[in-house]
Structure formats: structure tokens, C-alpha cells
Design brief:
Elements lengths: L3 E6 L12 E4 L9 H14 L3 E6 L1 H4 L8 H11 L1 H10 L4 H4 L3 H14 L3 H22 L11 H11 L9 E4 L5 H9 L2 E3 L8 E2 L26 E6 L2 E7 L5 E3 L9 E3 L15 H12 L4 E6 L6 H13 L3 E7 L11 H12 L5 E5 L2 H7 L8 H24 L2
Parallel strand pairs: 3-4, 3-11, 4-7, 5-7, 11-12, 12-13
Antiparallel strand pairs: 1-2, 1-13, 6-9, 8-9, 8-10
Length: about 400
Amino acid sequence: MTNKINFLSTFVTREGDKKSPASLDLNDSNISDDPNYQTLLNTINNVLDFDNLIVLAGSGTSLTFKCAPSMKDLWSKCRNEDETLFNEILDIVRYDIDQSKEDIELLLSLCDQHKALAYDLEKKEKLVSFIDQAKQTILKATNFTDDVEEGDWAAHDKFIRTLGRRSPKQQRFKLFTTNYDLAFERSAANTGFVVVDGFEFSSPSYFNPAWYRYDIVDRSDQSKTSSSYISNVFHLYKMHGSVNWTREGNGRVKKIDYQVKNSEPVFIYPSSSKYQTSYDSPYLDMMASFLHCLQQPKTALICLGFGFNDKHINNAVTMALRTNPEFNLLVGTKEPFKKGGSFNTDIRDLLVAAIDGGDRRISIIDGVFSQFANLLQERRKETPEEALFKTFETLAEKIQNRKDSIDEF
């Protein structure tokens, strides 16, 4: 089975007039001797050591699971529910498949716009019916975590375990995702992590962005210092909603059991249009946090499985590249260099041109999420207490070994 990736950064060996992606076979027994492979590992390790570490995860991270639907799959599932209605909706919103491809989020965004402006009652009813039907279809298709085999969680579990355990002196790892599914929540449960997702620790649990400002400390008898932060905590921002979010009549967003029927799911699909939902909570709170994080000093953003097809997010990232000199960007996704692929052409050209021009802050990996996870190495720096304890252990072992050797005589 092939296990190849392509890697591009200013540190990759130049061949010709322009920087070209270096091809790396991760199954090659001599891969450690390749300078470009060492450059790749150094790049990843350097990014993980940034004080402010952010990850932006797209649908490509969930496609590690065979049961996870792609955007094209969701389009097909929504169409197959009622093909006649689906085609009528395409005509009503004047959807150009040749230009926009099969993007169900964009289609739903256009449906919301036309519903708000429609003066034809019959068309409005069809739009409402399709939106409700499509949401339930998406809800069912993306609620797949119970169907994932136990052994298939390896990539997600290693990713959470490696990035989540950071030094107490560093900021909490922040994971932004546009996915609706519960893959990262389930992986956190697998690895014993606490997820701060903006919802209150109560029942019922309502969204409250103030919870992102709080932290969790160990106040047991053995740990009474003010800096006793527990290590297994990360922040999760679900930028486009979740299968276990529902909106009540008063507008509040509540977290529910993912197995319960959700009549009012909170799915946010701003794709290419700045519709009203883009400025509602919790989306506005998520974007505000994302923008704030990108402008902090010593910030690294890792984009995984994300094709940069959301203009709101694209603008935030490109602005950080222009205005934050301490901002670093690592992109890891499938086929970012492929012409005519799903990766945003404008963003690809911008990043590649910047790398070729000598911008050392940007790196691109052409690979899937599982390959990236396998490249991760534990980077948590040991505390002075841990270093001292390790020293005492070494001394005690030496003393014991010397005593044993004396006793032999």
C-alpha cells in the first residue's frame, strides 16, 4: 500500500527556477536520510511548540472514517430524498452546477436567501420543505460516530493526545472545525480529555461563550497551588453547528443527546454568501474567537482537511498572514496542488507564490489526515518537577545497581 505525501516550504531543496513540492515515500526504510523528510518533521515540531496553537479541521479529517459522508455524498443523499423537488429548487435559486459544483452548503445558503425574499407563496413553501428535509438528511448522514470501528479511531486519538497535552505555561490548544459530526468529541472521550465547547456544565446545557474564558484546575489535597491546571483539556469551536445542537423558540442554542430526534438542528452554512445566519450566535462568537486567536503573537494555525472554500475563514487567514508577522501556517490536506481539484485555486496560488518568494511562515503538506497524525511526535516539554523526579530516579537506579554489584562479592 502506497504511503506517499508531497511537502512544500521555503526549506525544501530547490529544483529549477521555482520551489517544487518534495515527494516523500513514508514507507521507505531510508526515509530518515532524506533532508526534506527531516525538514518536514522539524516544521511540524516547530509549529506544535508555538504558545498559541490553533487547528482548523475540515471535512477531510472525518473522511478518515469509511462511514463518513463527503460533501458530494451529502448532495446525492439530499437529491435522492426527492429528486423532483431537488431539481425544482435548483431552478428556483438558479444554481449553476458547472460553476459551483455539487456544494450542498452553498445550495442551502441560497435557499435561505430566496426564502427570505420570495414573494411567490408556492415557491416559498417548496424552499421551506426542502430546507427542512435536507437538514434532517444531513443530520442523519453526519451522525455516524456509533458506526466507526474501534480500531479506526487511531488517527483521531493520536491527534488529540499529542496536541492536547501541552505545557501548563502554554495556552490551551484550540480546535476549530466546520464539521457537524461528533468525531473529535468521541475521540476526546477515548483519550480521557475534557472538552470546553462553549456550553455550560449544566443540564440542560446552553451555549455561553463565556465558558471559553474559564479553565479547570486540580484542587485536591495533593495539589493546592494556583497553577495546578489539569493537562487534558482543549477548546472546541464548531463553526458550522453540530448534530447535537438544537435551537429553542427563544433563540437559545441547547446541547442534546445525539441519539434524540432533533427537530430544530443548528446547521450554519455561510459558504459563499453573507446571509443573516453568519451574524447570529453561536457563529458570530466562533468567528470572533477565530479572528482574535489569529492576531495573537506567536500563533500557529494548522489547517487539516480544509479546502478553503469558506470566504469568511479565508479572509481571516489571509489577513493574519498580512498583518501578523509572528503567524505561522501549516496546511495539510488531500491534493492541494492539483489543478481543478477541490482546494481553492486563489488560496493555493497565494500560498505557493509566498513560499516561492521566501515566506518561511507557510508550509503545505499534500496528504490525508491519518498520514499527518502518524507524523506527530510527543512534544510536551517536561516541567522542572518532572525533570527533578527523573534525575532522582536515575540516581536511585545507579545506587541500587552499585549496591547489587557490591552484594555479589
